[in-house]
Fold this protein.
Amino acid sequence: MTAEQELVSERDYLDYAHVCLRQSRKQLRELAERARKRPGDELMVEWLEWRADQLRDANESPLFFGRIDGPEPKPCYIGRRYVSDERDEPVVIDWRTDMASRFYRASPSNRMEVTRRRRFGFDGVVLTSFDDEPLTEETADTGLSRLVIAEIERAHYGPMRDIVATIQPDQDEIVRTELASTLIVQGGPGTGKTAVGLHRAAYLLYEHSRLRREGVLVVGPNDTFVRYISRVLPTLGESQVVHSSVDGLVADRGKPVVEEPEVATLKGDARMAEVLRRAVWSGLRLPTEDILVRETSPYVRIPPYVVAELCSDLIDRQVPLARAREHLLERAVSHVRRNLEERGHALTDGEARRLLRAKSLRDLVSTVWPTVTPAQVLFTLLTDADALHRAADGVLTDEEQKALLWPTVPASAGRAKWSPADRFLIDEIAGLMTPPDRYGHVVIDEAQDLSPIQLRAIMRRCAGSATLLGDMAQRTTPWAAGSWAAVAEHLGVATDLVRLTTSFRVPREIIEVANALLPAIADDLPPTVSGRHVPGALATVECEDVLAELVDVLRAAEQHPDSVGIVLDDARFTTVAKHLAKAGVQTGLPHEDGADHKVSLVPVGLAKGLEFDHVVVLEPAEIAAAGATGLRLLYIALTRAISRLTVLHSRPLPQLLASR
Ligand SMILES: Nc1ncnc2c1ncn2[C@@H]1O[C@H](COP(=O)(O)OP(=O)(O)OP(=O)(O)O)[C@@H](O)[C@H]1O
């Protein structure tokens, strides 16, 4: 067959797959209709409808993207979902099956019985080309395939796309790691950490149906980022996964106040968990006199030593407060019941149940554990030096305790203004009272930036394993745990550290410049390599008027379909936005609700995790001004580009860049 005839034959197969998909969907719908008529089959109906929904032929993405020949006699087509014919024979297999893993992992040195890998090129959903990689003894391991490179360099607009067609072997290994493992994935910019984390979530949901009940949570650094990544899982057919920013996990407490980084860092320190634990449990007050239960006839007296006995294991096990209160009430009722029985007055179950509402017993519980809100507990600590000292003695130094106290005391907890770090402390306290709902697996992106207290807040919501993604060289918060070993310690579960080393986003010409910053920002990390070579990808322009030059660069960029991101120091944002508006250049913040701009204006503080075809970094010296954090921000700014990076500056470049 000629290549052209083969293309026609592949297109016919694609049409056939569409027919099969529609047929299967119709069948599932009919089965659901029939099951609906049978009482008691609600679960079956729900499942059939869910399956039918999965087979929607919305023409959003091609039904298959690859094919392997061997070991089966028939070629095997790989797509985002399973399609079968009327005899239930597979037409397209799901990328998450074991069989499909050969598509990702087979190589000339480890062929896994695959003789040929074929990747398909599409224009929208129209099959336009294919690229064959023969896997025979004679072929050598080469770099990225032409179609993989074309996929990476396809103009980027709007939200992040899935990489299911082009997952690389080392990424695939991470995606398919067993559910029980908690992984920390360290990788340089653009090595695919976010993509891998999201595909891992989709894989785990496919492999472990219980995760659909337990839920999967994806946590990102901010709302912009969460909007950017939130389409990936739905395109992979997984629309139930919950996405949240870190701040979005904890209760909103109004407009946050800004506080000194040293105080915020202290509030994010793991030792604060012990201070809060002590504060919560120090609210316990055992009665000093008998409790008289008047709701029974005869009355019952509960002496203090009995209350202490009823509480003792609850205290020892530090049972979450809300549950401890319930247990104490139930135990007090049982005690009263036994006492009455011993005196010849048996209670009916109804009477015992009514006792659960008895005022004297409810008062007893409130005496032992007064009801306070989590915010009230923190308010007391931050406003009452004695209370703080009692909780923090031996845990925090005197200076640290002093630093935590508010200089002016609001009238009440209700009137207090809380900082972002306070919100996590309140959440920690709330967790000691009523643990939050938990998910079966949690994916945490940009995990390098989280404080121990933030890590605890996320892990409190995790009932199973987690996947943490990050790059220590991109650490920009003062409260970050500081190393993956420290992060692992705060997670409280065993972890495996795995690495990704090849950048798919950033061409070699750019990553080599960014790598020059590594000795100053993360000297223990190896330089990132790039799978792509793009001659002329980097242009450094020194000029007197950077804003005039910027307008020229943007005018020239109008000729290309590429997305453009202007990354600049946060403090510059307003001036540049005004200047560009005056010059008639339309810009917007990246991934604003519903809007995908050609030109995004990106304060560097928001740039983490994002990418654009063409990036303009404005005045690197301004971005790098804030010491090591500044250099890390610059490293982030320089590594957002997929195809081109223009560095515009009037001030001298930071030394590490100038020497390149
Ligand atoms: N195997 C792949 N095939 C095609 N594109 C890929 C592959 N892996 C990653 N990419 C692309 O590379 C870009 C960077 O990926 P991603 O954002 O996941 O990297 P990252 O390591 O999280 O980067 P950062 O550290 O900057 O946040 C994305 O456009 C992603 O789709």
Remarks:
- The longest helix spans residues 3-36.
- The pocket of adenosine-5'-triphosphate is lined by residues 148, 151-152, 161, 163, 166-168, 171, 187, 189-195, 471, 504-505, 609, 611, 639 (CB under 6 Å).
- The mean pLDDT is 91.
- The chain has 29 helices and 21 strands.
